[in-house]
Amino acid sequence: MVQFSNWDILRNLIFAAEWTIVLSLIAFVGGGLVGGCLLVARLWRGGWVNHVFNGYVQLFQGTPLLMQLFLSYFGLRLLGVEVSVWVSASLALTLYTSAFLAEIWRGCVAAIPKGQWEASTSLALSFGEQLRHVILPQALRIAIPPTVGFLVQVIKGTALASVIGFVELTRAGNMIANVTYKPFTVFAFVGLMYFVICYPISLYARYLERKTHVARR
Amino acid sequence: MNAQLDFLAVLSDWPMLLVGVGWTLALTAMAMAIGLVVAVACGWVRNEGPAWLAAPVAAYVEVIRNTPFIVQLFFVFFGLPSLGIRLSPTFASVLAMTLNLGAYGAEIVRAGLLSTPKGQIEAAQSLALTRFQVFTRVVLPPALKRVWPALVSQIVIVMLGSAVCGQIATEELSYAANVIAAESFRTFEAYIVATVIYLLLAISLRRALNWAGPRFIFGR
Where's the ABC transmembrane type-1 domain (chain B) (predicted)? Predict the structure, then answer.
């Protein structure tokens, strides 16, 4: 029987952590793009787009990410698309991230005083110009800390992709625990790895938050 | 696309779904009852508690907040038995959910405690209230009231997170969906139904807690 040292376990987990990071980045970038488009659509046309936006956010924030992953996994297959688990996991996590980011950014845009919109309208700026020169530069500043903070949520969310068979940190942990019969050590290491990835980002988000608060005071 | 959706095959298993909903709610209720106490205790320690306790509590809060719930659950369920602590799936789920809610709740409660005007504490002290009385009667109720919406959101998140507990065979809603999917071969439909139920649960739980908070938890 092969003996696994702690170093063997850790080394294999570090390999798997790469996929956690890659999946997180895909979800974060994809979610940011989709969420940004949703928000712009909402700002551009109120009315029914508002309702669609709210429904979308409510749908993804009010259902478990695990169910979203299952639906994406089995739904794509039902449609007859034989896709890899990569696509299913990326799709579900992107949509999930987009709903949260859109809602976070909506709050940031809403925090811009109404007078800014009115002033830029009175200067005859088009909607695009208003966003580009007046609203977004201001909204962006307050949006950065919560966005960085949400990145931690995304990284933790990717752990659920293990359930549909995506081999990342958690899945690798499961597999190694089954082989080594050392679940305590393995899952402690897995937790530690997530902590090592997430904690600096949390600290950075907190630092940014403090900085923007001081600047606004 | 030539697939036919058949929701009846899933809905005819409604007793199983109902049991799942019951367990999901029961797990959430237990985690909430204990988790809120943990949250208040940890929030208190981090604000004005003894210094020797502050560091371990801070470590607990940061570790839980920076690791995924599923890993916490696996650690409790698969990891602890090697220390001789063997837990049933249900107990492991409640424990993991409680630890999770306690850590997130601690930060929320702490924010509420921090925003207490200093004059209120001084006024209470000048009325010769003990330190315990000042905390439980003057500081805590309005603090909970201020952060209640955030706490409710966190409780809803924990309820949704409990879907993961099906992975260790806790018989909650997602587990029921798994079993129905396996028995009826209507996998997609089973998860659609479960997702819709989760959505309804999330909406009604939020409403119920927003209603119950001012009446039972911190007074009007």
Answer: 21-209
Are residues A45 and A38 in contact, defined by beta-carbon separation less than 8 angstroms?
no
Residue A124, phi-psi category: left (phi > 0), alpha (psi -120 to 50), beta (remainder): left
Nearest-CA neighbor of A138 among A27, A51, A212, A56?
A: A212
The pTM score is 0.92
pLDDT in tens, B68-122: 999 999 999 999 998 888 899 999 999 999 999 999 999 999 999 999 999 999 9
**Interface contacts A/B by beta carbons within 8 Å:** 119
* Nearest CA distance, B19 vs chain A (angstrom): 18
Predicted complex ipTM: 0.91
The closest CB to that of B75, out of A68, A75, A188, belongs to: A188
Q: Residue A54 is part of a domain; what is its CATH number?
A: 1.10.3720.10
Token pair listed for B90: 């249900």
What would the pLDDT profile of B4-48 be if each residue is shown by its tens digit?
Answer: 788 888 888 899 999 999 999 999 999 999 999 999 999 999 998
Nearest to A31 by CA among A192, A163, A197, A150: A150
Please tell me the total count of domains within chain A. Answer: 1
**Two structure tokens written together for B76:** 């409790």
Looking at the domain assignment, is residue A1 inside a domain?
no
Q: Which of B60, B65, B70 to mutate to test the interface with A (most CBs of A within 10 A)?
A: B70
Q: Domain B8-217: what homologous superfamily? A: MetI-like (1.10.3720.10)
